């Protein structure tokens, strides 16, 4: 990149423009799922049992092989796609069609995942996506649907970035650096009109909220846990409402946003640890029962892994607190920590890092969620019935 170009656009925005961040994060999710499958195989965790897949329909070996092939093909495709962009951008060429490259890469990714109609894996994924995008849930394959929808909630900011990119394409805006005079990073202002970006970020939580209410109704309104879970997802809407009111001038400070965000983070952390992972961590301190364990009786990973997972979940659920503590735009001489967290919370590079961290947190959550569900299923008959790992 030339010196003139460097003065026009930051190195980060040149080498990793917003549309390609979306491509990378989708690719990362596929990589993480493959690692989940490998870990389940190594620890003899029946992931297919959890997903309600019979050995006649699919074996774990075949699923891992299919996952590996998809991962390799998608990664190679995206590398080639990015290389074309980089060649044109670094050499000062200007071509409108280049703006469409990331969209082509995203469509190619989903084509590779879903195109094979003879593949059980592709058809299961396609059917699941069709259900969850409407907020529906198949009770007979509950874990299958929940894993995908909850993962989608961690991609909420990636969804907004994708819609920023696609809407810019539709409006005829330049979405990638190109030409001799490189444009600035793709602006998000057109999607911030009427707070559309904030509302869209809540769409995945709305889907999960609807699923919980549907489960509650299907239980004859007897299973209060589904209602409490729905309330948990509804708390994700409160920070959005308070931020909209703050931007509109109805609130003078962000104190209400801080309060609602704290409620959402605390409720979500409690639910992760107590319900999704079935740990007695909070119950140990909230109840007077002496026999409650910090974790649980049956563990398939090492204890250190569970403790680390809890720490990661806590830190990343409350990472927004660092922005409140350290970021002070009015400070004349900010500390090193303040500079670091200002970069984290006030720049596009920081936004990308936060998106990566949230997807990493979800990856950790999926590890323990699958393991927990398998332990629960196995405990019904007091022994672990291992699936075929051929």
From TrEMBL:
Q: InterPro entries, alphabetically?
A: EXS_C (IPR004342)
Is DNA-binding one of the keywords? no
GO CC terms in record: cytoplasm; membrane
The EXS domain covers: 188-390
The UniProt record lists the keyword Transmembrane: yes
The membrane-topology field of this record reads:
Multi-pass membrane protein
Q: Which residues cross the membrane?
A: 20-38, 70-89, 95-114, 256-273, 305-325
Q: Provide the organism lineage as a comma list.
A: Eukaryota, Fungi, Dikarya, Ascomycota, Saccharomycotina
Q: What is this protein called?
A: EXS domain-containing protein
Species source reads Pichia membranifaciens NRRL Y-2026
